[in-house]
Design goal:
- With 55 residues, the chain is mostly helical.
- It has a domain of 35 residues.
- The chain is 47% helix and 0% strand.
- It contains 3 helices and no strands.
Length: 55
């Protein structure tokens, strides 16, 4: 949770929002899987699950 008491957005929805807001212009490098895992405090399997990636 964030300090405001509201749940923090997940890595996928937050990344999509950052792209929509123009934080990553066309051709910009997106955060790596490792960076997303560390920033959001999730595991690699949680990140894959949230992204809908099948192994």
């Amino acid at each position: 949770m964030s300090t405001s008491g509201r749940p923090r957005p997940g890595p996928i929805s937050a990344s999509a929002q950052r792209i929509a807001n123009g934080e990553f212009p066309p051709g910009a490098k997106l955060p790596s899987r490792r960076e997303l895992i560390e920033h959001y405090g999730v595991t690699a399997s949680e990140l894959r699950e949230r992204a809908g990636v099948r192994r």
